């Protein structure tokens, strides 16, 4: 199994990969986000996008007039590619791109000094889970501390049990189950899961 939790894996992969969408296309994810985007305080609402890789999700969010977006990835090649994609699409860069470990958000001043109205990840927690539940919990704790009052975390995962973790500082709800494509009609039903995580009250 690939070492999805290791930066070396992503560096090798991103040396040649220019575009890839984990689990679902951004165009499928955006309608799931729509009701939450509509509840944000305005187009200047702060959004934290964790593990963007070679996705175009941040571009689709900016197309919806959101630009106060902090895009975080483990690998510098991803942040470089994200800036290039935004510049090619819009002519200039307005979003922020940070190379950082999503399990150590508190150690990044540009992140820890901010509060976010919405946090998004698409299979980033899945990759981090390769290092164990403690790593996912560390990511969740950092997100919890980074959320503004009323802020939420939306996460897409292949696992029905991704957030079944003791001490998780969130109440967890499945927004929807997304069926995966079948090669044959007789294949079993397999789903991806879109989670809504609302922070439990801070101690």
TrEMBL record:
CDD domains: AdoMet_MTases (cd02440). GO terms for biological process: methylation. Gene3D superfamilies: Vaccinia Virus protein VP39. One of its GO terms (molecular function) is methyltransferase activity. It comes from the Eukaryota. SUPFAM superfamilies: S-adenosyl-L-methionine-dependent methyltransferases. Keywords: Methyltransferase, Transferase. Belongs to the methyltransferase superfamily. PANTHER family: METHYLTRANSFERASE DOMAIN-CONTAINING PROTEIN (PTHR12176:SF84), SAM-DEPENDENT METHYLTRANSFERASE SUPERFAMILY PROTEIN (PTHR12176). This is S-adenosyl-L-methionine-dependent methyltransferase.
